[in-house]
Structures are given as C-alpha cells and as structure tokens.
From TrEMBL:
Keyword Thylakoid: no
InterPro entries linked to this entry: Cro/C1-type_HTH, Lambda_DNA-bd_dom_sf, TPR-like_helical_dom_sf, TPR_rpt, TransReg_Diox_bact_type
UniProt organism field: Streptomyces collinus
Keyword annotations of the record: DNA-binding
Domain of life according to the entry: Bacteria
Entry GO MF terms: DNA binding; DNA-binding transcription factor activity
Name of the featured protein: Tetratricopeptide (TPR) repeat protein
Length: 447
C-alpha cells in the first residue's frame, strides 16, 4: 500500500471521525473487532493492519487512503492535474499566472502533507523565479524541493539539484554550478543509477558553464553523452533542451550547419509542445549561429524575434542576455549608436550577482564601440570592468580574448609593461582551457 501516517495520528483521526458520526467504540468495532481494540487503536498504542483499516474506513464512510494517510487518492489526482496545468501556463510564457498557481498548490500540498506534490510545486516556483531573474529566490525554492525529497533516490532529486545549479550559473558562479552538476553525475554513474532522463538533464545543463569556463573539450564530451542518451529518454522537452545545448559545442567547433540542424529539431519539438519559453531560446541561439556565420541580417531577425518573445513574458534576465547578442550584430552592421543604447539599457538590469558573464559581454562590446570612436579612456574603463566580472565568475572562455583587447589598447597608448601584464593574464587562461578550475572529470555512463 501507499504511505501511511504513524499509529498515533491514525488513532486520533479514527476517534475524530467516529465522534463526528455519533458512533460508539462498540458500534465501530462490531462485528469483527472488540471495543477494547478500538480504544487501544485510538490511543495510538497499536498499528492497525490493512484489513482493520478497511473495516474502519467502511464503517466510517471514508476511503482507505484517507483514513491511512489523511488524504484521498482523488485529492492527489486533482493536485497532479493542477500541477500539469501550472506547468502548461509557464510553458506558454505566462510566468506570473503560473507562479500564482504553483503557490496555491504548494499551500495545499503542505496542508495535506504531500511531499512529492510539495516538491513539484517548489520546482515550478523555482523555474518561474529563473524566468523573471529572481535568482536568490529561485535557488531557495530548489533547495526546499531537494529537502522534500531528502530520502528519495538521487534521480528523483536531480531536477531540483539541476535548478539550483542553473541559478548559480546565471548568477555568475560558474565553478559552483559545475561542481554541483559533476558531483551528481559522478554519484549517478559510480552508483550504477543510470537513469537516462536524469543523466541527460545534467549533461545538457553542464554544457553552458563548461563553455563559459573555457573547458571546451569537456563541453564536447558532455554533448556527446547527451546525444547518446537522447534516444533512451521518453521526455521530448528534455530532448529538445539537449539539442539546444549541444548546438553551443557545435558552434565552437565551427560546425555551423550541424548546429543549425540541432536547433531546428529543438524548435520543432518546442512548437509541438507549445513551450514558448524554450522556443524563444531557440530563436536566440539560431541568431547566434547566423552571426558566427556572417549572416547578419538573418541573425538580427532571429534575435529580435527572441527578444520580443522573452520581453512579452517579462523574462528580464534572459531578454537582457539576448539584447547583448543583438547589440553585437547591430554594431557589426554599422549601427553602433543603436547598439550602445541597447547595451546601456541592459546594464541597468544586470549586476555582478545577476548575469555577471553577460554584464561582462556588454562592457566588452561598449569598450570596442568606444575604441572605434577613439574614446580610449572610456574603452579601457569598460574592458577593466569586464575583466573584473569574468575573473570573479571564473569565465576563462572569454578572459583570454578580453585580455588581448585590453593589451592591444594599452600598447597603442604607450603603456608597454601594462600591456604585457594583460597579455600574460590572457595566456595564463589559454594554456590549458578548463584545467585551472576543474578537477577530474566525473565518471562516465556505460554507453
């Protein structure tokens, strides 16, 4: 049978229902049990058998589950259906409405002591918080979801753990995000817990922080494992997310056509599932791919579509990140004033604790725009700010290029020693990408 409460709780419940119905202990007990047994049961001194609970439930006119656990199977089914509705609301981009639904469901799950439903409601609230850029609140929701499932197997806890890692990643805490994801991967693989959905979720989530840290080889390996695991997954939304993540490694390897094909697959799945949030992210990534390929007009169109979709659902943090990519395309198309205005607006929404890597990208691009306009001091100020943000986040993937830009600027202004220091800093991050911040790779799945 399912979970049941302790004998004391069941005894008090039986007594309350008996009194409400105006039954004596003898009337409740007969003809199978004695009044003395009912008295012992109501005092919590005996753990009733399933047969005894069925008899009592029938006499009291309640369902077995309600007597054993305090909630009916119908209640749980209704809560699960409403959780699915809240998930659908979030998928179509109505984040505030979804958060309200999840909050109501959380209160009900807590009232009835339903741990799994409480965890799912907290996961939903965490995802809503990530959408709106409330990273601290999101992390706290995910932590509470993990606590609800403290005794559950690791695969069941992976969605909450992954959410916590993403919150740290978006806050610019790359090393810790990778630590969380790799620790879970290592535990799953070494423990023989080869749950394909859990592994796929973790590998796909690790690709972004790996790329930002400059650990391109490890990102490529994670993408390889994710692609191999995808056919074993029964979750199309998870497979679509994997394709979107894998596209980053394909772009880094110069395989732009394959990256675009992966994004097209992801977009097709998201359209079928009506998940607007992730569809917007596919437009964002395709814009990035076209920009890398020099197709700037197509890149601008894709990025503007992504920005429009994300802004409509008030996903402030993600829309700020897309705006940085769009500004780069606008600058490359000769519209630097428009790009700079967009970037200054972005920096008003980001901070070192909220989108540090993208704040750095905005300062880097503002530095390039200022340098092109021969505003040397302003350019240097933006480069230094970007460098500070990237060093704090551990984003080695972008540090080397930024140090080159700063070094070139310092050299042109006659500060040769300072330029050499900048170049040395950049070389230090290029010598062994990823190895300065990452430990041994986690154990691998048996693929």
């Amino acid at each position: 049978m399912g979970e049941r409460d302790d004998p004391g709780t069941i005894g008090r419940r039986v007594q309350r229902l008996r009194v409400e119905r105006g039954l004596t202990q003898r009337q409740l007990a007969e003809p199978v049990y004695t009044p003395a047994y009912i008295s012992t049961l109501e005092s919590g001194r005996v753990r009733p058998s399933d047969d005894a609970l069925r008899h009592l439930a029938d006499r009291l006119g309640v369902a077995f589950d309600e007597l054993a656990s305090g909630h009916s199977a119908r209640l749980v089914t209704e809560l699960r259906l409403r959780l699915t509705e809240a998930q659908r609301t979030l998928a179509v981009g109505e984040t505030e409405a979804a958060a309200g639904q999840y909050a109501e469901l959380l209160a009900e799950a807590e009232t009835h002591g339903l741990a799994a439903e409480r965890s799912d409601a907290l996961l939903g609230l965490g995802e809503c918080a990530l959408e709106t850029g409330e990273l601290v609140a999101g992390r706290q929701y995910f932590e509470r979801a993990e606590e609800c499932l403290a005794g559950a197997p690791l695969p069941a806890r992976v969605p909450a753990l992954r959410g916590r890692a993403v919150a740290h990643y978006l806050a610019g805490e790359l090393r810790y995000a990778v630590y969380l994801l790799e620790t879970a991967l290592d535990e799953l693989n070494r423990g023989g817990l080869h749950d394909p959905d859990a592994l796929l979720l973790l590998y796909a989530s690790a690709i972004g922080p790996y790329m930002d840290m400059g650990a391109h080889a490890r990102a490529a390996q994670a993408a390889e494992f994710a692609l191999a695991l995808a056919p074993q997954s029964g979750d199309p939304a998870l497979v679509a997310r994997m394709h979107r993540s894998v596209a980053r490694t394909l772009v880094a390897e110069g395989r732009l056509a394959e990256a675009d094909a992966s994004l097209a697959k992801a977009a097709e799945l998201y359209r079928g599932l009506q998940i607007r949030t992730e569809l917007a992210n596919c437009h964002w990534m395709r814009g990035y791919v076209y920009a890398q390929d020099g197709q700037l007009e197509r890149a601008e169109a894709e990025l503007r579509e992504a920005l429009s979709m994300l802004s409509a659902k008030r996903a402030a943090l993600y829309s700020s990140q897309v705006a940085v990519e769009l500004a780069d395309v606008l600058h490359r198309r000769g519209r630097s004033d428009e790009a700079a205005a967009l970037l200054h607006d972005v920096l008003g929404h980001l901070s070192p604790e909220r989108g540090a890597v993208h704040s750095a990208a905005a300062h880097r691009l503002l530095g390039i725009i200022a340098e092109d306009a021969r505003r040397t001091e302003e350019a240097e100020e933006h480069y230094v700010r970007a460098l500070s943000l990237l060093e704090r986040a551990g984003a080695a993937g972008d540090l080397a290029d930024l140090c080159r830009l700063l070094g070139d600027l310092l050299r042109r202004t006659g500060r040769v020693e300072a330029a050499l220091d900048a170049y040395r800093t950049g070389l230090g991050h290029r010598t062994a990408p990823g190895t300065t911040t990452l430990g041994p790779a986690p154990a691998q799945p048996p693929l």
